[in-house]
Sequence to fold (665 residues):
Amino acid sequence: MKLRHLAWLLLALIVFGAVAAGTIVAMNLRGEDPLPAQAEAFQSTPQLVERGRYLALAGNCAGCHTTRGGEPYAGGMPIETPFGTVYSSNLTPDDKAGIGGWSSAHFWRAMHNGRSKDGRLLYPAFPYPSFTQVTREDSDAIYAYLRTVPPSAVANREHRLSFPYDTQAALAVWRALSFKPEPFVANAGKPAEWNRGAYLVNGLGHCIACHGSRNSLGATETKLGLSGGLIAVENWYAPSLTDPHEAGVADWPPADVVALLKNGVAPRGSVMGPMADVVFSSTQYLSEADLTAMASYLKDLPDAAKAEAPATAATKAPIRRDAGTMARGAKIYDQRCAYCHGDQGQGAAGAYPPLAGNRAVNMARPTNLIQVIAHGGFLPSTSGNPRPYGMPPFGQTLDAAEVAAVLTYVRGSWGNDSPPVTQLDTMRR
Amino acid sequence: MRRALKLLGLGLLLAVQAVANAATPATVPDTIEQRVAACIACHGREGATTNAGYFPRLAGKPAGYLFNQLVSFRDGRRFNSDMAYMVQHLSDAYLREMAEYFAGLQLPYPPVSSVSDATPEQLQRGRQLVREGDAAHGIPACVQCHGAALTGVQPAIPGLLGLPRLYVSSQLGAWLTNERHAMAPDCMADIGRRMSTADINAVASWLAVQPMPADTRPAASLPAPLPVKCGGMPAK
Fold:
């Protein structure tokens, strides 16, 4: 009697397991067109190649698929994730090492469905949750362009992920939960320019890969949109594009948004860290029309601050700062910072940004400020700002307590009223 | 009268402060000097560090050499996280301009201390490697490429004097351990790999106590062809 119960239970478990596995497999095959029985002859034209070159820039493919000083699109760049290291792959037309043996349908399946030529599921470090919105036409153009870059024999490197993230089964479960191939759907209520911007921002631009938040499985949370996210491991905060207190541009003139993406600097902001990468290797090359379209979409993102309860600001308790820390911060500021940023944090026009009233200084998270002090840097050289001014790195001259003190001072002076920065903040990863 | 002057001075001071307090953005000169002000935090004002610390002097080095180094930091042939960070988003044209600016600065060198904790044998070995090389190990003499006066050769070979000992030894060590690269063919990597750590220490120690010659400028040209093939040199 008991044995029979056990047998039933076992059978039920097996059936459940099979159904679950079947469901996961089925969900992973959603929206996937069968590959053509025979690879169709691919018709390329110089125009298509040129279009693909431009779109590859819009998607910043080289940002991950070309290492520093390495052969173009030969892959091999380590992408650090909380689950381990993923290495970008060789996209050159080399038959063995690259994608020389791929058809345009294989390439489309990778872009739209996140599946490799050999059927393996791809890791979403390759941002196919965004690229799924790219049209077949644009995918084909990028494919046509990639066939023209010099073939490279650099072999793909094995990813270094911890168990169970290194298994296809785990990836299948992840995809069943977090990924659905979806073409871009235009919003009929919005002008064509807005829709073009939405297509670029949410598709090839894959802005959400940094400017979105991720759940515990590392999936971008589409529902929350471009509301800001901490870039794992790199430890930069990609500010919210929907919040006027962070990097929202609703009240910017469209031309200023275009300037920021084209030149890396605009009247009310400039790019540093990972966004400097993006401007340097991607957006500076985009057409005025495409950048204006992106601006139109970005300016129209829902305002996160308005959505919140409006009463919170009024009830905010006054921020308390330690007088000794402020005094130490003021001294460091005078010695190290005032020469460029001015003794009142006023900055210098066209060269050094003001710190007084600067929203990048006053964001809730001090992550980026800590990075900027440690590493310094130049804004990217672009056609609109070819010879940027620079900031020295202070990582070796200021210790954690000094960085915390000077930031506490900067965030609490000249009308700035943001919480102090602690030593702990400077060590957070 | 003196009191009046004092008052006038005080008045002027207050006026200046009032202007500063208005906190309007200042204007800074649109010069390459101002644009590369970030470099002086480590490399010293006008890129002329002393040889006491680690950071190498930039002032007066050949422009082609400085440019090759900046590009190598950007493109991953040389590794220094601060330098990589600084130049990662800069164009060739701008890096060239920076290199030419620092190359054009002819500034006096600080006096070199002749005190060293190196043994006479070490200094003797260093002098020998610099002046004669070590044919048995295939190491050419430094002077064959870096100039008879060791002040470098235009346009792309650096001088070896007036540099911190720590910097020279760590650069030679980086070639030995495959952590510093130059454009192919990477001649210094080949030479560096033939040197022992004792050789490296000897060369760096000897170079660090050499006084600067009267003319510190890089030589205009090489007296004889290079003994090895080096990348990053202008095509003849």
